[in-house]
């Protein structure tokens, strides 16, 4: 499974008719500056704020398994748990010999033996899906549409190879290109964006989207939708 930190050195979302059936869970960073809100209803949405400044508007997350089951669709919470970690990790091969790991964590367990783990650091947000199921799972698709409060400026690297809208041809690339700067609404929907990608937000915040802790899992690509302040995802499909 994969963690996707939103590093804080740093659309309009529809309000469903089933609002009354939704449940909301919140988590703050150790220093109290960041706050994430997880809304669970017909879908799972993540929101991120720094004080009174919205950084990430409610953004849907889900995962589709082989066979069509969607983790995160009409999910039902059966258990929640909050925890905290404050430790120092030795890192002899890094530029610093020790790294401080400090975060608060919210674990949501759902009916169907799967869960969502959300971590909030003083400078970032991370999430990942988990399961308690036996055996091997095959992931067909991962839904994450990062939705921003306004048409912010993005700094992104497009995949250089392949034809526009022919995403299969774009998957074969060297992850090398110069960065393009453009408003989110003007991102080219026909070209994949590889990570990391940066979004410059109001209030001087800069939000970086990236991945970590991948093993036996394809890398995630983003692309603009050409309509609003939202980026769509594109996961490299399973080989046939």
Automatic annotation (TrEMBL):
<dbReference type="InterPro" id="IPR052720">
    <property type="entry name" value="Glycosyl_hydrolase_97"/>
</dbReference>
<dbReference type="GO" id="GO:0030246">
    <property type="term" value="F:carbohydrate binding"/>
</dbReference>
<protein>
    <submittedName>
        <fullName>Alpha-glucosidase</fullName>
    </submittedName>
</protein>
<dbReference type="InterPro" id="IPR029486">
    <property type="entry name" value="GH97_N"/>
</dbReference>
<feature type="domain" description="Glycosyl-hydrolase 97 N-terminal">
    <location>
        <begin position="27"/>
        <end position="230"/>
    </location>
</feature>
<dbReference type="InterPro" id="IPR014718">
    <property type="entry name" value="GH-type_carb-bd"/>
</dbReference>
<dbReference type="Pfam" id="PF14508">
    <property type="entry name" value="GH97_N"/>
</dbReference>
């Amino acid at each position: 499974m994969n963690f996707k930190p939103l590093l804080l050195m740093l659309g309009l979302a529809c309000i469903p008719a089933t609002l009354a059936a939704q449940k909301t869970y919140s988590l703050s960073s150790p220093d109290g500056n960041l706050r994430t809100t997880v809304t669970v209803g017909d879908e799972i949405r993540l929101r991120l704020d720094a004080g009174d400044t919205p950084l990430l508007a409610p953004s849907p997350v889900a995962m589709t398994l082989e066979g069509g089951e969607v983790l995160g669709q009409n999910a039902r919470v059966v258990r929640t748990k909050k925890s905290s970690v404050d430790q120092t990790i030795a890192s002899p091969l890094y530029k610093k010999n020790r790294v401080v790991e400090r975060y608060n964590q919210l674990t949501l367990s759902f009916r169907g033996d799967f869960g969502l783990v959300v971590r909030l650091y003083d400078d970032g947000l991370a999430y990942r899906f988990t399961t308690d199921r036996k055996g091997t799972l095959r992931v067909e698709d991962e839904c994450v549409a990062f939705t921003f409060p306004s048409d912010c400026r993005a700094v992104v690297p497009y995949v250089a190879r392949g034809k526009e809208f022919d995403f299969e041809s774009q998957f074969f690339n060297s992850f090398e290109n110069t960065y393009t700067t453009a408003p989110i609404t003007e991102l080219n929907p026909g070209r994949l964006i590889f990570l990391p990608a940066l979004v410059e937000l109001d209030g001087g915040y800069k939000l970086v989207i990236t991945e970590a802790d991948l093993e036996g899992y394809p890398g995630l690509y983003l692309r603009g939708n050409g309509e609003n302040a939202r980026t769509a995802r594109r996961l490299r499909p399973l080989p046939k």
